[in-house]
Design brief:
The protein has 503 residues and is mostly helical. Among the domains are: 169 residues, Serine Threonine Protein Phosphatase 5, Tetratricopeptide repeat, CATH 1.25.40; 81 residues, Tetratricopeptide repeat domain (Serine Threonine Protein Phosphatase 5, Tetratricopeptide repeat, Alpha Horseshoe). It is built from 20 helices and ten strands. A two-stranded antiparallel sheet has the order 1-5. Helix 16 runs antiparallel to helix 18. The longest helix is centred in the first third of the chain and has 22 residues. It is globular, with a radius of gyration of 22 Å. 50% of the residues are buried. It comes from Tenacibaculum tangerinum. It is found in: Cell outer membrane. Its main location: membrane.
């Protein structure tokens, strides 16, 4: 318990510099922990910090609410929250937005743990694993804010951290991980860092590298189309092939990857944030945040799917959802999109709180919806063994994304990516296949396969569609919204940070 208390204290002073922060070196020195204990504990912390991706108030909503997939309508007094959810969908956030500030703390907390592990003389394998986490959190921060406070190995916690800019941070994240890649374990367990996990991250970083390089001198992000270098795209293909040669295969049932026992029955999960019924996690939020009060389980009646997403599916695509053993027979819920009249496990119609039929509609009002408005989504199924502490592991990387990244990279090099796309669609049981797939096809296929998984903002930015109008956001928005503002509290504690243009 002592080690985790120390790490909690140190993470609080993540990348600021205060009088207390200057005492942090001494605090850690006096902790009584060996360097090995610190390394071990900080690797645990870096992994545990991934649970913040399961929370609807941190980075997940920053990657989903401003896109063509998700929104959080206000329902009378419910879900108003000072307009925070509307601001995300309308691209009207500012540097004091609570979701942006919360995500900043979570991401940099993970980065601190990785750097502190590297600072305490890890062995080669531990160094490689800590470096993976460092690259992962640098990549995430670069994607969201275009700036990354970074402490050089060996520097004092009392010094102000330097700041990596968007164009250099991605190179550092890639180069440091490639330098230690050979020292990573060779296993394939989804709850630990290994070569397959690192290869997936490297593919994703190379795929997005051109986006971060396309930045004006003052830090303003460019909108594209981006200059994707063939050498980078070949790296994507190579790293994807490394993963595709591993012991993974696409699920026979798409929704098995999100079931309460997903990593036990799963065959395509490469990396996940582990949960169980004893220690919990935040994954219950994924069904509570969308389900109506009178569903089973009763939810918070919040987030909805956009018709922009739903209309990309045809009726023959199993990924749109349907009955699932252990779900539909227990509660009446279906997987995927919930639209129209809702039923209980016996087939009886469910009513809303006013006694009217509970029928979810495609339409909703961002500012003033009644409680039945908006389609709901069940991606992660409720764990009826423990609804508040579900055992579903949260998927970070899975094989389907690897097929899609390879297809995109092949297309950007001028090739025909129908092969990997059709492997995926055939495995999913989709009737139609591609001949001569386009980039637009790939973006839509990423939506159909990866919806509500936390990648959509990144994908839309890369395909230059992020600023376009969508349902309940009728206007195009300025390119400064491609990255988020640096939180006001972070600017006040680190003079090396500067506010992003437009904020």
């Amino acid at each position: 318990m002592k080690k985790y208390l120390i790490f909690t204290i140190s993470t609080f002073f993540i990348f600021s510099c205060t009088d207390l922060d200057k005492e942090l070196d001494g605090l850690l020195d006096k902790s009584g922990l060996t360097k090995q204990e610190i390394v071990t504990g900080q690797l645990v912390n870096a992994y545990s910090q991934l649970r913040s991706f399961q929370h609807q108030e941190f980075q997940y909503v920053l990657q989903q609410h401003p896109t063509d997939e998700m929104a959080g309508p206000t329902r009378g007094a419910d879900w108003d929250d000072g307009g925070a959810w509307r601001a995300l969908h309308l691209h009207q956030w500012n540097s004091s937005h609570p979701r942006i500030s919360g995500a900043w703390d979570q991401i940099l907390g993970g980065l601190f743990s990785a750097i502190d592990a590297l600072n305490n003389e890890p062995n080669d394998e531990e160094r490689a694993m800590a470096t993976f986490y460092s690259s992962f959190y640098i990549f995430t921060a670069t994607d969201l804010w275009g700036q990354v406070p970074n402490r050089e190995i060996g520097t004092s916690y009392g010094d102000f951290p330097t700041v990596l800019k968007r164009t250099e941070a991605i190179d550092i994240a890639i180069s440091q991980l490639e330098a230690v890649y050979d020292n990573l374990p060779s296993g394939s367990a989804s709850n630990s860092v290994n070569k397959y996990v690192a290869a997936t991250l490297l593919a994703k970083m190379y795929l997005n590298r051109a986006v971060y390089k396309a930045t004006d001198e003052d830090g303003t992000p460019q909108t594209g189309p981006f200059a994707f270098d063939n050498a980078d795209m070949q790296k994507v293909v190579d790293y994807c092939d490394t993963v595709l040669s591993g012991p993974f295969s696409l699920q026979a049932n798409y929704f098995d990857a999100f079931a309460p026992n997903n990593t036990d029955i799963g065959t395509e999960i490469i990396f996940a944030s582990e949960n169980d019924n004893k220690t919990g996690g935040e994954l219950a939020r994924f069904y509570f945040m969308t389900l109506h009060y009178n569903n089973n389980p009763g939810g918070w009646n919040g987030f909805v799917a956009l018709t922009d997403l739903y209309d990309k599916f045809d009726d023959s695509d199993p990924r749109i959802g349907g009955d699932y053993d252990g779900l539909t027979d227990v509660s009446g819920l279906k997987t995927g999109f919930l639209v129209g009249q809702q039923y209980d496990e016996a087939g009886n119609e469910i009513e809303d709180r006013a006694g009217q039929p509970l029928a979810f509609t495609k339409e909703f009002s961002l500012a003033n919806s009644t409680e039945e408005k908006g389609m709901r989504v069940i991606k992660y199924m409720p764990d009826y063994a423990n609804l508040n502490r579900p055992a579903n592991d949260f998927v970070i990387f899975r094989l389907a994304d690897v097929y899609l990244m390879k297809a995109e990279a092949m297309t950007r090099m001028g090739g025909d990516a129908s092969g990997p796309l059709n492997v995926l669609r055939t495995a999913r049981g989709v009737e139609s296949v591609y001949t001569g797939a386009t980039l637009d096809d790939i973006l839509d296929e990423r939506a159909r396969e990866l919806y509500w998984e936390g990648w959509r903002r990144q994908d839309q930015i890369r395909f230059s569609t992020f600023l376009d109008p969508v349902q309940e956001k009728p206007e195009s928005t300025d390119r400064t919204k491609i990255i988020y503002p640096i939180p006001a509290k972070a600017l006040s504690t680190n003079p090396n940070l500067t506010q992003n243009p437009g904020y």
